[in-house]
């Protein structure tokens, strides 16, 4: 290939690539831009998502934690006692905090939401939980959960509850042997 042929080949390639780039840019300029969500829209979306998840749970749904928690969530239970502390990952939280509780309950815990506050990616839920333990005694507790949302799931949770009621249930009712 001669130098002049190589230059012609190079110029043809650049021109073709430039034409493709110009056409692509023109197409992108004509297409409607994907509107970024406003802070108010993000707040509303997160509040609605959490509210619906609690409604589904109250109606008998059993996928609240798998639906709402990111796989790598960090869940922190504030207070003192064996359950207090941080859980790293949805599976860790479910295995070490949720399962020991549900194994001692005769049926699912029924949530009643008292209020939900949201600001951007932060959602605060004040709710009461009621149910019956396997020994027939009632279980009641009040909760405040603070969710930090990302990608429609909670990536961080801080939970407040009366840990003495939770711990009392775990100590009073023994799980059934497998």
* CATH topology group of the largest domain: Nuclear Transport Factor 2, Chain: A
The proportion of residues in beta strands is: 25-35%
Integer average pLDDT:
87
Q: Would you identify the CATH architecture of the largest domain? A: Roll
Structural class computed from helices and strand pairing: alpha+beta
Number of domains: 2
- CATH class division of the largest domain: Alpha Beta
Task: Give the overall shape.
Answer: globular
Q: C-alpha Rg, in Å?
A: 26 Å
H/E element sequence: HHHEEHEEEEH
Helical content stands at: 40-55%
Span from first to last CA? 79 Å
Which features would summarize this protein structure in a list?
178 residues; alpha+beta; Nuclear Transport Factor 2, Chain: A; 2 domains; 43% helix; 31% strand; globular
SSE topology sketch:
Layout: H1 3-30, H2 39-58, H3 64-68, E1 69-77, E2 85-88, H4 90-102, E3 110-119, E4 122-132, E5 138-150, E6 153-161, H5 163-172
Parallel strand pairs: 1-6
Antiparallel strand pairs: 1-2, 3-4, 4-5, 5-6
Structural overview:
With 178 residues, this protein is α+β, with helices and mostly antiparallel strands. The chain has helices at residues 3-30, 39-58, 64-68, 90-102, 163-172, and strands at residues 69-77, 85-88, 110-119, 122-132, 138-150, 153-161. It has a 6-stranded mixed sheet. The longest helix is centred in the first third of the chain and has 28 residues, at 3-30. The termini are far apart. Mean pLDDT is 87; it is low at 5-10 and 20-34.
């Amino acid at each position: 290939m001669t130098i002049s042929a190589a230059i012609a080949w190079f110029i043809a390639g650049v021109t073709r690539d430039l034409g493709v780039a110009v056409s692509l840019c023109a197409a992108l300029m004509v297409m409607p831009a994907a509107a970024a969500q406003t802070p108010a829209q993000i707040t509303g979306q997160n509040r609605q998502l959490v509210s619906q998840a609690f409604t589904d749970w109250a109606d008998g749904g059993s996928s609240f934690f798998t639906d709402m928690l990111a796989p790598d969530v960090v869940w922190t239970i504030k207070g003192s006692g064996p359950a207090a502390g941080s859980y790293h990952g949805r599976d860790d939280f479910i295995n070490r905090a949720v399962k020991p509780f549900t194994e001692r309950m005769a049926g699912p815990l029924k949530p009643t939401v008292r209020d939900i506050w949201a600001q951007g990616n932060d959602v605060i839920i004040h709710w009461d939980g009621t149910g019956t333990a396997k020994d027939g005694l009632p279980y009641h507790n009040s909760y405040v959960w603070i969710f930090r949302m990302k990608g429609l799931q909670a990536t961080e949770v801080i939970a407040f509850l009366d840990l003495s009621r939770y711990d009392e249930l775990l100590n009073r009712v023994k799980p059934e042997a497998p």
